[in-house]
Design a protein that fits this description.
21% of the residues lie in helices and 31% in strands. By secondary structure, it is of the alpha+beta class. The protein has a domain at 2-33 and 423-473. The chain has a four-stranded antiparallel sheet. The chain has a four-stranded antiparallel sheet with strand order 5-6-7-8, with no helix packed on it. The chain has a four-stranded antiparallel sheet with strand order 9-10-11-12, with no helix packed on it. The radius of gyration is 27 Å and the shape is globular. Mean pLDDT is 79; it is low at 1-16, 30-46, 396-428 and 445-474.
Length: 474
């Protein structure tokens, strides 16, 4: 009780003790700012900048598109220069970016207000329309063999009694028709993909209320479906599609997730068997099946694994960065990394990932994409970006922030952007408050009166601490 009394004595100083009253006010602001800052730093809108994935259009060999939590960073000269398409131009909290096939070459992004698409390289964006609630869009997939064909998942479909459903577009995501597939009651769709070597082969991943994973398959472009319950020994809470084998449409690679760890699973449609290939002690952050069949897996904490025998065995992948995503084009391997921990956001390798040549560091990003409409929309984006980079360099609690953000990274390197309420303001306020509070306390130390004054809690202001010390000595 004496300790509580002393705390109250300090927290409620006398009216004339203005120094400590101001200190208390700043301390309360500090406590308010701190929790509002740390959980949001991995998200968009003024957060610590982070990478999400990479897009490498095959018909534009010099173009590289890096997806980030503050928009798209684009290079048209193989990484020699970069320009920004800010998040505000795309939509609210965009993620799960896709690049469609030529000639449409649609850029797609799942946002908090629906599916956004761009037909001019990201200069302007529009919202897809269809018989679904825009806020329920959870995934989209651009057909790798048809630039006009796009599939979309919605968590609920108002036209179909509120069930998860798959929708189809034949005008490059401008509009979607009625449901192509409706999940049974109690099932939630989590992913969709079309086989590259057979456009009629489509896969859907889903799970039920008991967290039992399922995979649905169609061999006739969605006219009929076969649903398979996968092995219960997968221990999956959520099942997502990583990729369909580009040469073998009957082989699907899946990410099986629990609350703390991931597994790489291969499903064979011919045998109906799901085989666990690799169990990870943490989150999977990237996956790529290379053109030569090599499997690459990235894990949280700058760890990687490689398989040269189709997943029968995996070896450690040395010299791997903190992967956010992987890509391949024309024999080159591309990595999306942690800009702060690795010193670069995008790098390329010509020696199977043994060494990396950095292509992009966010500190070197100083230009917007050459689009007339972006000038006004993205006018403050670059200054916000560099202010946040300076916050990280100044010693903000980055390690704690990344640890808290790690659970939001997954799949092929895409992280789900969630709503953040001006986290940069909280960061600035927190740092400013700490500085002012330290100054006030130093001033209080030098100006404290030697003669004690009566305080409101029955002890002498400025003497509570010394009285407690004397009592403890006795």
């Amino acid at each position: 009780m004496p300790a509580l009394r002393h705390l109250l004595c300090w927290a409620w100083p006398a009216r004339h003790d203005r120094v400590r009253r101001r200190s208390v006010a700043f301390a309360l602001c500090f406590v308010w700012a701190l929790p509002a800052t740390w959980p949001k730093v991995a998200f968009a809108n003024g957060a610590f900048p982070d990478s999400l994935g990479i897009l490498l259009p095959s018909d534009q060999p010099q173009r590289i598109v890096a997806a980030t939590n503050f928009g798209l960073v684009v290079s048209s000269d193989a990484g020699r220069s970069w320009q920004l398409i800010c998040e505000a131009a795309i939509g609210r909290f965009p993620t799960l970016y896709q690049q469609g096939r030529a000639p449409q070459s649609r850029l797609l992004a799942v946002t908090a207000s629906g599916l956004a698409w761009s037909g001019d390289g990201g200069c302007s964006w529009a919202k897809a329309s269809g018989p679904f609630d825009d806020t329920d869009v959870t995934d989209a997939f651009a057909d790798p063999s048809d630039g006009a064909h796009v599939l979309l998942l919605a968590a609920r479909a108002p036209t179909d009694t509120g069930r998860s459903a798959l929708f189809e577009s034949h005008d490059a995501a401008k509009s979607f028709g009625p449901p192509l597939y409706s999940a049974a009651e109690g099932l939630l769709l989590t992913g969709v993909e079309i086989a590259r070597s057979d456009p009629k082969t489509v896969y859907l991943s889903m799970y039920d209320g008991q967290l039992q994973p399922y995979l649905a398959h169609s061999a006739d472009a969605g006219k009929t479906w076969t649903r398979t319950m996968l092995a219960k020994n997968l221990n999956a809470w959520v099942l997502r599609i990583l990729a369909v084998d580009p040469q073998h449409p009957e082989i699907v690679y899946l990410r099986s997730s629990t609350s703390t760890a991931d597994e790489l699973v291969r499903y064979d449609q011919h045998t109906g068997q799901a085989t666990r290939l690799l169990s990870l002690p943490s989150r999977m952050t990237a996956f790529l099946q290379r053109s030569n069949g090599t499997l690459l897996v990235g894990m949280f904490g700058a760890r990687g694994f490689v398989s040269h025998d189709g997943g029968k065995s995996f070896a450690d992948w040395p010299n791997v960065p903190h992967l956010r995503g992987l890509g391949e084009r024309a024999g080159k391997l591309y990595a999306v990394a942690d800009n702060t921990l690795d010193g670069y956001a995008v790098a390329e390798s010509t020696d199977e990932g043994a060494s990396w040549r950095p292509l992009l560091n966010f500190d070197d990003l100083h230009a917007l994409a050459s689009c007339p409409k972006l000038a006004a929309t993205c006018s403050s984006a670059l200054s916000m970006l560099h202010m946040n980079l300076e916050t990280v360099d100044a010693g903000a609690p980055y390690a704690v922030a990344m640890a808290m953000a790690s659970s939001h990274h997954g799949g092929s390197g895409c992280s789900v952007a969630r709503q953040a309420s001006q986290p940069t303001l909280h960061v600035v306020l927190m740092l400013l408050t700490a500085a002012v509070l330290a100054r006030r306390r130093r001033r209080a130390h030098h100006t404290r009166s030697a003669q004690p004054r009566a305080g409101p809690c029955g002890c002498r202001t400025g003497r509570c601490a010394s009285r407690s010390s004397s009592a403890s000595r006795r």
